[in-house]
Specification:
Layout lengths: L2 E2 L17 E5 L1 H10 L9 H12 L9 E5 L4 E3 L1 H10 L3 E9 L15 H7 L5 H15 L16 H10 L3 H10 L1 H4 L5 H14 L4 H13 L8 H14 L6 H17 L23
Parallel strand pairs: 1-2, 3-5
Antiparallel strand pairs: 2-5, 3-4
Helix pairs in contact: 1-3, 2-3, 4-5, 5-7, 5-9, 7-9, 9-10, 11-12
Length: about 290
């Protein structure tokens, strides 16, 4: 169980080795006092990080993971200011490991390791293709906001581990779609990103209800270019990408996704395509295509 700290925090009294390290319930009042009186030399607060932490706390996602709020023997806060600021922001009491009595000279070594990425976290959970899965989860989260790709390309907040876990719990077949894409990365990579293939594979099958065989045939044809008629939308897409690459450029991100959605819509409907375009710089402008 967490302990409620009742220690007086007079600023003139330094921390000593008699202060017991342990798990405490850090209240907003205690957090505010620690930040005000014992944080003179720390790095600049990053408001976005504070907000992300506070939102995770409000959603009930914050867990006691052993990462400590650290004070030196001189009473300087050496680690944990963003967590403390988040506690103040969300006005909740949070359990935390609090460590007292660290040598001041050792504070400069805190947070010098490599930050654990989303791929690192997913790998720890036993997922393969973790890097591609992490990217696909981020894209899928944007899609779910209004069940469209309209907001794709806009900067999105980083998913917390709890948010990723929730998405995977609700969409357990998403890793399979990413595995399908990753297995074909060498042949598909020139035409469409692995994360985009994984995203579309999942949406087309699990959300739109298209047959697995038809969806996978679509991507196989993009990869191989075999048996495509002159007006086949897939041939138009392949030729578009090859043409752009021949000029030393690439079809990137949002535009590439829009073009492949238009390609799927036409191909799946059995329509011929004479030209593949998506007008974003000439009138009339086109909205982002809705996937059929």
């Amino acid at each position: 169980m967490a302990k409620t700290s009742t220690k007086g925090l007079a600023p003139a009294v330094p921390w000593t080795t008699s202060d017991k390290s342990g798990v405490y319930l850090v209240t907003p009042e205690i957090a505010a006092k620690w930040l005000e009186e014992f944080n003179p030399k720390n790095r600049h607060l990053r408001s976005t990080q504070v907000s992300n932490y506070a939102q995770a706390m409000l959603r009930g996602e914050w867990t006691l993971n052993g990462e400590g709020i650290i004070f030196s023997t001189e009473g300087q806060l050496g680690n944990g200011q963003h967590r403390l600021a988040a506690i103040v922001m969300c006005d909740l009491s949070i359990e935390a490991v609090v460590i007292f009595g660290v040598d001041p000279a050792a504070l400069s070594t805190i947070d010098t390791g490599i930050k654990r990425t989303a791929a690192d976290q997913l790998t720890l959970l036993g997922h393969s293709n973790a890097s591609h899965l992490g990217t696909t989860l981020g894209l899928f989260d944007i899609y779910l906001k209004d069940n469209s790709f309209t907001n794709l390309g806009q900067r999105a907040g980083t998913l917390t581990p709890a948010q990723r876990d929730k998405l995977l719990d609700e969409h357990p077949n998403l890793p399979h779609s990413v595995s399908f894409a990753a297995a074909r990365s060498k042949v598909l990579g020139s035409f469409v990103a692995v994360s985009t293939v994984g995203l579309l594979h999942y949406i087309l099958i699990e959300i739109k209800g298209h047959p697995v065989e038809r969806v996978e045939a679509f991507f196989e044809k993009i990869a191989t270019g075999v048996e495509l008629e002159r007006l086949d939308p897939i041939l138009r897409y392949r030729n578009y990408v090859i043409g752009v690459k021949s000029q030393g450029a690439n079809v990137r991100g949002r535009r590439r996704l829009a073009l492949i959605v238009k390609t799927w819509n036409a191909w799946n409907a059995g329509r011929d395509m004479t030209v593949l375009t998506w007008r974003t710089d000439a009138r009339p402008l086109e909205d982002f295509p809705i996937i059929s």
